[in-house]
Amino acid sequence: MPYTPDGSKPYYLRLRISLLEGNGRRYKGIYRTVDALSTNTLEDLHDEIFDLFDRFDDHLWEFQIGGKHPYSKEARRFLSEETLKTEKELGFFRGKVLRADKTTLAHLKLVPHQHFFYIFDFGDEWIHKIGVSSYQEVKDPYPDEFVLVKSVGEAPSQYPDFEDEDEDEE
Length: 170
Fold this sequence. Notes:
By secondary structure, this protein is an alpha+beta fold. It has helices at about 40-50, 80-90, 105-110, 160-170; strands spanning about 10-20, 25, 30-35, 60-65, 75-80, 95-100, 115-120, 125-135, 145-150.
């Protein structure tokens, strides 16, 4: 029988984070499966994805929850503090948004088979689909915040065109 959290203690959400597109290219078969502790914030999840996909240069980012596709109008948006500040300054601010650093995974009440999106770098638009596979019971009294379960496919370089130019110069 699958584990179902009762809210009395932290639990893991098994998440499959798939890279859909970025830098003008579409991708298939590149994903990371992690167990994410329910007490983590969306900002913590951003940091983990940043590392899992070998990113090195930070950019603006957001999570979108409740839409069928990225940029869906019905999605709730969860922004980094910097993204929120920049959107307000540039007049791009749209709809109700929430702070990613104040929102935990448990607060979202995510359920198995639900998915949401993570968009990193609005210029190159690295779009990830995150699917909730299951809940996992936390048995360790001092659990890790994230546990990598599976890694499939090599993450493309954050700036592949620049690396190609560097190789041409040598």
